[in-house]
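Section 3.1: Structural characterization of target chains.
Under the original work plan, the team committed to producing a structural model for every single-chain target entering the pipeline before any wet-lab resources were allocated. The record below documents one such target. The sequence was received from the expression subgroup and is listed exactly as submitted; it comprises 383 residues.
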Amino acid sequence: MQSPIECSWRSIREMQDHELAFIAKRADMDEKEKRLNYFLRILSSPTINLDILRKSCWHGVPNEVRAICWKLLLGYLPLDISTRSDSLLSSRMDYLYKVAFHFDKIDRKNDALLQQISVDVPRTIGGPIMKVDVVQRMLERILYIWSKEHPHIDYFQGLGDVVAQFLVVYISEHIDVDNYRDRSLRESVWEEIEADTFWSITLALNGMESALSQSNFEGISEMLLKLKSLIRLVDPRLDDHFAVEQLDYIQFGFRWMLCMLNRDLNLSNSRRLWDTYLTEGPESYSSLHVYVCTAFLLRWSDHLKGMEFGDMLTFLQHLPTKDWDDSNIGQIIGTAYSIGRYEAQIRQAATVMVIYFLTMIAVLIAAVAASILSAYLKKKFKL
């Protein structure tokens, strides 16, 4: 039985813990509010400074302004506010024409592509909103029309998960996507969201077309070879362990590359990762993604080295990221950039060494040539 003094001390400690938790929560709210106000100031400018926006978004975007920031980063939304209305109207009308041309008159029962998409759409991750019928029909049309517009890229199931990231973010501008109850959203608003998502995903995937368009996913295979080479560079013991256990990178990495880790992270983490990817531009983030995947392997390197084949494969196919927050993704991104810098330093050092050896060889050749020429001249002129 506790004494009155012990009970009193315990009550005081509990009160202190509660107060500290409240203060920490309040400080976090204040910091989020400051960050949101900072973004609102950037976005209120008549002409957005893209460099400042990119630097700000690299560290993550507040949920309240993520949709407009993504559209600006992609170049879908003009930086000049005076031209946005006309640009959006034109793009949205163009998408309606594509719907009429590609989708409205198709034979649903005999169209193999649509049948495959219809099977995949209900499996798409994206939270409760993705179970709503109107949203599933939007995703179905976007996937079908995008595939028809890109015949050089074979449709694949993971494409829906990438599209859903943008679709959910754009819907969240208008309703609470986690607690969807409002059925009063106008049809015209749904149409605008759908068009904006289609054009955004078209721009976002431009940088991955080379990887996706090659036969038998040769581009993805190249990304996996790059992943192996990076692990060989920064953690050769882990690569050796994979080899001993006969674990091939394709057995876990193919999905990482094709689905951009959307199936291996919670929704908040996936969007945080896309915040950084989009700041890099579509030409760069597919390569950045390989460094991010390398950072994932490094995070659990010691753990993996103690596993056998079956346990490793299960672990890498079900990463323990369910309870991660944005700080975890920030650490992964920071590690990815450190790996990139280290690789660049190694490459630069190797280049210097090659130049040094080539220079020494040239000097040696010149010395030998001079010696031969001197001997020849002495013999010819009997010096």
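The CA atoms of residues 238 and 301 lie 7 Å apart.
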